[in-house]
Specification:
single chain, alpha/beta, 8-stranded mixed beta sheet, 6 helices, globular, binds glycinamide ribonucleotide
């Protein structure tokens, strides 16, 4: 099985959905660690409760972004993950960090990228009058919420939606596509080559209307 480190900053619901998938015997990946930049991230306790080793690297405990990332990179050297899944990790990784793990880092973002990267994505989608929202799993490159797309799913934006109601509708499909994307990458069916996502699995549906 491929070894996966999951990075979180918050409640960790995407991390839990990956852990649930990984608990299935035929799933091609296992979660070897959950790493957070926030000691109070709810996902840390949720991961520990199901026996996953957890690590908190709190930014203010380090003199610089470089020192913070160096500590995380040292832990990753020990863990030797094949894949790093960013799951609500709300900190931009440096170019040096990304280069060190080039092609191995996945991120989930709650919009149909390249629309609405960054923060307040649901409010911006509602304000723009969009009728469709969704989420994207992509390989991480140096830009924010940038990089080749592995999987996307769409949900409707309904009259009366608030950022909160929309976020929870999107989150339910995040949980479905992240495990799909991780499975494709862990099986070698999708990989990043020369900055593009290359699919060796033409029959796999990686875009879905749910
Ligand atoms: C998810 O909606 C994820 O897509 C988003 O944070 C939430 C984390 O929830 N990530 C980003 O906005 C990254 N740009 P979770 O902690 O329950 O998985």
């Amino acid at each position: 099985k491929k070894k996966v480190a999951v990075f979180i900053s918050g409640s960790g619901s995407n991390m839990l959905s990956l852990a649930k998938a990984a608990a299935e015997p035929e799933f091609p990946a296992e979660i070897v660690a959950v790493i957070s930049d926030k000691a109070e991230a709810g996902g840390l306790a949720r991961a520990a409760a199901i026996g996953i080793p957890t690590f908190a690297f709190v930014r203010k405990d380090f003199a610089s972004k470089e020192a913070h990332e160096a500590a995380i990179l040292a832990e990753l050297d020990r863990l030797q993950p094949d894949v790093i899944c960013l799951a609500g990790y709300m900190r931009l990784l440096s170019a040096a960090f990304i280069q060190r793990h080039e092609g191995r880092i996945l991120n989930i973002h709650p919009s149909l990228l390249p629309l609405f990267p960054g923060l307040h994505t649901h409010q911006r989608a509602i304000d723009a009058g969009m009728k469709i929202a969704g989420c994207t799993v992509h390989f991480v490159t140096e830009g924010m919420d940038d990089g080749p797309i592995i999987a996307q799913a769409a949900v409707p934006i309904l009259a009366g939606d608030t950022p909160e109601t929309l976020a929870s509708r999107v989150l339910t499909v995040e949980h479905r596509i992240y495990r799909l994307a991780l499975r494709l990458v862990a099986e070698g069916k999708v990989e990043m080559k020369s900055g593009c996502a290359v699919s060796h699995a033409v029959s796999e549906a990686t875009g879905a209307l749910i």
